[in-house]
């Protein structure tokens, strides 16, 4: 079974001083028996973070353009992330889908660009509160997976993160049975589409108000191979207990 993954998404947070948190995280996770740990800082810190991670810690971007280069003011390509030292990129986060109108087709094009640049993708999906209340969760997630993942997924180039929008930054974490229902369905969909071996090995992360206090319960849930952590990844003191809980799970 693939190594579990604890990934931190710093979102639009972090000035140079935040790299001291990254140093603390990188120093703490040297041991081989720890899960894999990735931090995805804002673009401005990717190169410095990769330099300071010293190979203990994977570094990722939070988005990339679908094209490799060109006249796209303000955008960053997958190849540029790779060049800066990133090995991961988060794509299809609900904040990008909402703030920038990204569709599943847009996300799929970005995933392909990331793969072309040999980055591993952390692909996000998840329903809104209205969709959950309308009992559409499994359909929404299935549609996002079908539409956002191109052919050619492997356990090395893809990680899928289930992040219910109503649980992001709200302190309202999904209940383990709710997480299990979606993760089991995602696992089945991936096995159906990419074959048993690949579908079983693609890591599935839960994201949405993961904290030290709820991490153990989440990591004990069916088909949860790690977490994508927002707010609690900004401070080493908040993030490391989550990493330890994953190691112990
Ligand atoms: O969106 C998230 C990670 O990508 C989750 O954010 P929070 O952990 O702050 O709820």
TrEMBL record:
InterPro entries attached to this UniProt entry: Aldolase_TIM, TIM_sf, TrioseP_Isoase_bac/euk, Triosephosphate_isomerase, Triosephosphate_isomerase_AS
SUPFAM superfamilies given in the database record: Triosephosphate isomerase (TIM)
Cross-referenced CDD domains: TIM (cd00311)
Gene3D superfamilies, alphabetized: Aldolase class I
GO cellular component, one term: cytosol
UniProt KW Cytoplasm keyword: yes
Main location group: cytoplasm
Assembly, per entry: Homodimer.
Protein name: Triosephosphate isomerase
Native source species: Roseivivax halodurans JCM 10272
